[in-house]
Specification:
The chain has eleven helices and eight strands. The protein is α/β, with parallel strands linked by helices and 243 residues long. The protein binds pyridoxine-5'-phosphate.
Length: 243
């Protein structure tokens, strides 16, 4: 089965916001990624607007050649914004103001009625909801309950493992979760903390449709350029899948 690469371009904006300049251009970056193998562009409009700004999302939507996966918190403000932009996919993530990055999966299980309502709102705008969750059966069951068509399995805990035993344990947990979600008819994506070193094992999981990768690709771009960093990752995931 095919495997797709979504490149998260948040940190192009991090660089721009550090100086309040007009460069580097988000649109140019996204287009280079697309020309180099990205199948979609992911971006996270955070409540604190620390990197991506509202105008970036609006401008990108009209200039993308692939599709947009907009990550956002399940708030009314973001829902209104999404209904204006109409990204193809909307990935619902938990958000804490002080965190460096998204630290854990969304707890769909304990906010079932709210997340179900948000998924319904997105669907009414023809936007596919994707729920960013931990590799946990209860959360997967809750995603089904919410009628979400897509889940994205949080790979951050796997990426953070400090030794082989822990990382194999996490990997097995992810494999089981992906297979379970797939058997329930969900589209399974995965992402967070993925690098050239740890992505192969995730790409090998047959039920995974799309990987969303940002920080490591943008960091690698400093040394090899954004086009090479993107195509290198695309080649790696396709090779791992035997394509
Ligand atoms: N997927 C989701 C839902 C995320 O929130 C992020 C980080 O914004 C990513 C993927 C990409 O993570 P990383 O930058 O660690 O590759």
């Amino acid at each position: 089965m095919s495997i797709f690469l979504g490149v998260n371009i948040d940190h192009i904006a991090t660089l721009r916001q550090a100086r309040g300049t007009k460069y580097p251009s988000i649109v140019e970056a996204a287009n280079i990624c697309e020309e180099s193998g990205a199948d979609s562009i992911t971006l996270h409009l955070r409540e604190d607007r620390r990197h991506i700004q509202d105008h970036d999302v609006l401008e990108l939507k009209s200039k993308l050649k692939t599709k947009m996966n907009l990550e956002m918190a399940a708030t009314d403000e973001m829902l209104i914004f999404a209904s204006k932009v109409l990204p193809e996919d909307c990935c619902l993530v938990p958000e804490k103001r002080q965190e460096l990055t998204t630290e854990g999966g969304l707890d769909v299980f304990s906010q079932l009625s709210r997340i179900k309502e948000v998924c319904g709102e997105l669907k009414s705008n023809d936007i596919k909801a994707s729920l960013f969750i931990d590799a946990d059966k209860h959360q997967i069951d809750a995603a089904v309950e919410c009628n979400a068509p897509i889940i994205e399995i949080h790979t951050g805990h796997y990426a953070d493992c400090k030794n082989k035993i822990d990382s194999n344990k996490e990997l097995n947990r992810i494999i089981e979760a992906c297979e379970y979600a797939n058997s329930l008819g969900l589209q399974v994506n995965a992402g967070h903390g993925l690098t050239l070193e740890n992505t192969g094992n995730i790409a090998k999981i047959d039920s995974v449709v799309e990987l969303n990768i940002g920080h490591s690709i943008i960091s690698r771009a400093l040394f090899v350029g954004l086009a090479n960093a993107t195509s290198e990752m695309k080649d790696l995931i396709r090779e791992a899948r035997g394509l």
